Amino acid sequence: YVLTQPPSVSVAPGQTATITCHGDNIATYNVHWYQQRPGRAPVLVVHDDDDRPSGIPERFSGSNSGSPATLTISRVEAGDEADYFCQVWDRTRDPPDVFGTGTMLTVL
Amino acid sequence: EVQLLESGGGLVQPGGSLKLSCAASGFTFSIDYAMSWVRQAPGRGLEWVSGITGSGTTTSYAASVKGRFTVSRDNSKNTLILQMRSLRLEDTATYFCARKAGWGRGYYDEWGQGTLVIVSS
Fold this sequence. Notes:
The structure holds 2 protein chains of 2 kinds. Chain A is mainly beta. Chain A contains no helices and 9 strands. The model of chain A has no long low-confidence stretch (mean pLDDT 96). Chain B has no helices and 11 strands. Chain B is globular. The model of chain B has no long low-confidence stretch (mean pLDDT 96).
């Protein structure tokens, strides 16, 4: 199972960034999103399509109502510049976990 | 505070072996939490490597490491292990241990800082 993301997305501060995640029948899965800053471990920013962990700003939101799944970052800040990865899990599949190809978000 | 601390990385020759450990603290390292190893080659994306259920009875592997890597856990010592054998150049990466958020949860809510494995002659 392959999850495909655009290699890069660029956005000006204060604007909205949309990062997509394409996969076969992706709407049937729960999609999760991670932010990874250079040299750091990934951080969960959205889980189960559209839920935010505590401590993640409301500016981060997700959707998976139809292909593709999307991560939306509103009112983008310089600190949002990072790599973003989508991920799905299916216990019946081998392998059960798959990460997307990753998107580098650049804040202009 | 939840902490995952990887160790055991280093330089190894092709064909060699290495054992990675992940010491968990700040939570009950038990059957409630499945764990995984995820790696990232230099300048590349995340690649899921291996996973193990909370009880340790079920394991799974990426095709790229199946037959060469073995994942295990010792719940009494709060430790996750990845035994790597027949290492290849393409296994060079930072290896992260990560915690699944709970029973039946498909996402990783806690990550270690990673340990670097370099396979080179």
